[in-house]
Amino acid sequence: MADQYARAEECVDAAIARVGKTIVLGLPLALGKANHLANAFYARARTDPDLDLTIFTALTLERPAAPNALAARLLEPIAERLYQGYPDLDYARDRRAGTLPLNVTVKEFFLPPGGLLNNEYAQQNYVSANYTHAGRDILDSGLNVIAQMVAPAPDGGGYSLSCNPDLSLDLAKALWRQQAAGRKVAIFGEINADLPYLGNDAAVPEDWFDGLFDAGRYTLFPVPARQVGLSDHALGLHAATLIKDGGTLQIGIGALADAVSHAIGLRHTKNDAFRRAVARLQGAPEAGCPAIGGLAPFETGLYACSEMVTDGLLRLLECGVLSRKVHDAPGDDGFFLHGAFYLGPARMYQRLRDLPETLRKRINMTAVTRVNDLLGSEALDRAQRVEARFFNTAMKINGRGAAISDTLEDGRVVSGVGGQYNFVAMAHALEDGRSVIMLRATRQSGGKTVPNIVWQAGEITVPRHLRDMVVTEYGVADLRGKTDREVAIALASVSDARFQKAFLEAAKAAGKVEKAFEPPEDWRRNTPETLENALKDAVSDGVLPPYPLGTDLSATEIALKDALQWLGARSKTLRGRAGLFAGALLNGAIPDWSLPYLERMDLSEPAGFGDRVQARLIVYALEQTGVRCDPGE
Of 66, 75, 231, 473, which has the most beta carbons under 10 Å away? Predict the structure, then answer.
């Protein structure tokens, strides 16, 4: 039986007594970190320089920080509402401040997307690894202690690794083998009664742990949904036509993933609206990709095999899309979904807690080596993963079809490889599998619109020899088995019309496309205005809402967020800032309709000149983003 500890510090004492003062502490990716235990180990290292502590983890979650004082007026009350009761990680705070002690090392194989681009320590201590290889690298670093948040079983009969069996199942087995050979190791569980209990492979007995610390009940880290823009919805509609009924589904996280999940749900539950939107978007009475996917609702249903269980996948389970049952062993009840970890908004965690038992037991949270690859059970996995469609997001695609997904040209890491390469390679290994790389055709950079489909780019995440399907808001480019010429032309066909000429000129200069090639006339349709016109009815009918999976923000906060983003985009240059101030200060008196917004920003009664300027900037931005009335009207 596991030892029971009343205080987190007692676990540190037990670990030191067991393994000594050189500790390599493994913490799960994202949600499953044992925050109280992590803080206790870190606090001990800060006061005891003889303790050599290495923390090896991924995706350390931190409360969002406002970029400026005006944004803080909006963000801080939201953060207080969402993160009240969440125990912050002290090592993350000190890493960001550059004050980690010399006897502490923090290594991560996946960084919070874009959150540590300018943190030299995090950049220098990033470990690039496929998700399925991360456990090996953690073991090779000398792992001897694991600390993980766990959920108690409702009947008191054990615990669940719940959100993070991903690496822990395999790492624990490896540590037990080392222990049998005479090495000292320790596995600790931090009990959080707020963590949803999920059984099957994630269920473990008490003696799986050497020690347990009951932390009672505390807030799970919520990741609020990102707004899904019109171009995201367009991309999602295209992507949803690639899925074949009776097939297999994997989707990542973010606005594009939410758009795809929503479009798949529309296809099943509001098929007429889905077909109309796709037809308008693709400019044909009955569009789509029927040879590869389809347009009809899912009669057989889909099976999901996704390293990350997202809010969108959970919605697809609840609405009946995920209903194709697979079996891991003769006589088991069968599963609709295999996942390795989950992360999402607070409402997702609540829905997992409230999930009917009939659906709960259809989820099998298990090892990432099982989900992300064909390792150890290839025949079974091939039988389960028929017609697989693996959807992942890239930052850029180069002219040969290689995906740039995690690193900038100068080498700074935005996030990490994670499981993207795993799923792309597996799509090629499966007989009828397809890899689908999603990206927006353009992005905003320095106040300008720039392309994401470019002839040359930086660090490659997925090489060109694994190129397959690429989806943007303008359509689908099928690159598998194509020549370099065909690939370049296909990518140009789904790029923004404003950047097609420069892309093709680069392709011609490289000798990949003949000089005489001219793009067809219909490529000129690849514009934001065309998308807006094609989907305006679907937007006005509520078929394509900005937060299709829901939001933790009020209508007032959404409007203010949009206004602040508008201001931020126009504040990149001195000329832009001058124009904002001129527009705001010449805008006349504060209108009555703006008072609820200003009250939310604590600017309804400006205290001085600075507050008055901020209030006028807010009103000006609200007007420019289309808000001219009380949110209650």
Answer: 473
Coil, helix or strand for 501? helix
- Other beta carbons within 10 Å of 384: 19
Rounded Cα distance, 330 and 380, in Å: 12
Helices 90-97 & 35-47, crossing angle to 10 degrees? 60
Give CA–CA dist 134/143, Å, rounded.
12
C-alpha to C-alpha distance for 60 and 37, rounded to whole angstroms: 15
Single-letter residue type at 215: A
> Looking at this protein, which amino acid is placed at residue 306?
S
Element (H, E) at 233: helix 230-240
Cα(83)–Cα(62) distance, integer angstroms:
10
Residue 539 has pLDDT above 70, yes or no: yes
Whether residue 187 contacts residue 354, with contact meaning beta carbons closer than 8 Å, is answered with no
Phi, psi angles (nearest 5°) of residue 266: -60, -45
The pTM (predicted TM-score) of the whole model is 0.95
**Three-state secondary structure call for residue 451:** strand
Span 310-321, average pLDDT:
97
Question: What's the CA gap between 568 and 578, in Å, rounded?
Answer: 13
DSSP string, 504-549: HHHHHHTTSS-TT----GGGGG-SHHHHHHHHHHHHHTTSS-SSTT
H/E stretch holding 52 reads strand 52-57
Residue 152 token pair: 């108690």
CA distance linking residue 431 with residue 388, whole number of Å: 9
For the segment 386-412, what is each residue's pLDDT rounded down to a tens digit? 999 999 999 999 999 999 999 999 999
21-24, long-range: CB < 8 A, 24+ apart: 21/48, 21/50, 21/51, 21/52, 22/52, 22/142, 22/144, 23/51, 23/52, 23/53, 23/54, 23/144, 23/145, 24/54, 24/56, 24/138, 24/141, 24/142, 24/143, 24/144, 24/145
pLDDT at 207 exceeding the cut of 90: yes
Residue 633: pLDDT above 70? no
- Distance of alpha carbon 333 from alpha carbon 336, whole angstroms: 10
Q: Which helix (H) or strand (E) holds 15?
A: helix 8-19
Burial of 632 per CB tally in 10 Å (0-12, 13-18, 19+): exposed
Please give the single-letter amino acid code of residue 147: A
With cut-offs at 50, 70 and 90, classify the pLDDT of residue 462. very high
